[in-house]
Design brief:
12-stranded mixed sheet; single chain; TIM Barrel; 14 strands; globular; two-stranded antiparallel ribbon; alpha/beta
Length: 342
Amino acid sequence: MWLVTSRQLVDRFGRTATDLRLSVTDVCNLRCTYCLPATGVTWLPRATILSADELARVAHIGISQLGITKIRLTGGEPLTRPDLDQIIRAIAVAHPDVEIALTTNGIGLAERAKALASAGLHRVNVSLDTVHPETYAAMTRRDGLQRVLDGIRGAVEAGLNPVKINSVLLAGINDHELHDLLDFCLAEGSELRFIEQMPIGATRDWARENLISAADIRGIIEQRHRLRELPGRGPAPAQRWEVLSTEGATLGTVGIVASVTEPFCEACDRTRISADGQLRSCLFSQRETDLRTPLRAGASDEEIAQLWAEAMWAKPRAHGSDAGGFGLHFIQPERPMNAIGG
């Protein structure tokens, strides 16, 4: 068992990163309208993508050298990697006390959930914006809703609980279906998490006036249910509420990630590494630190950790900038979300 040192990923504003978002691929098998264009998508060169062994080593350095306590594997779509089980197992065997989570669109999850759980995966978040086939096809430009629903149920059966559902609402597209999605999640025992659409997609067509805000979402939910805010959010991106019936019975919980209108940058505890080994201190950062080159050039774990720590010290205040206080100013990153990692 590897020993954990006292070094931490602290930045200039006193935040400590303990949550690693580790992307395993930029490839995705959907073309969600708010993320990717319908055609003409260019993937990163395959030779630049970190191997399973390299990803496991990066995770080990973060855990053993820098105090990482949670790893979320992202993409692109992680399930497009046939060696995903191998990556998870390598991390889990070496560091059984570290939580390993996965964010996926759910395509193929039903077939792989048990193997992923057996490899050491603890939890899964599934991206799902609607439970209506026509809307799903319009938003993802693909047919596959039933496979996603099967994947959610397969994850539950595999013990990857609680299964959380990530949803983005788009004005005039799926916002009127909010209650259908919420009812589905309450019935399935999954926790629905609405995420405000951020200015980060490859299509570059984000406009604040089209945003369905956290306040909007709460208002729509409260047309049918009561909400009771839950305490103890800490650095978690989602503020959570109990969903109550009109009689006061607890039906489940719902979360809202209000990155735009109610930012939580001041408590951010995340550090990110893209599938091609580029370290990002902030999702919206304009700067990346290359870890792939020193990894492949024979740098020691300590040398990689030092590069990592130095980059995190320079983390911007909020949304890629030091201007305007926490969360008041956006700088859109040059790379789209699939290349950065969720």
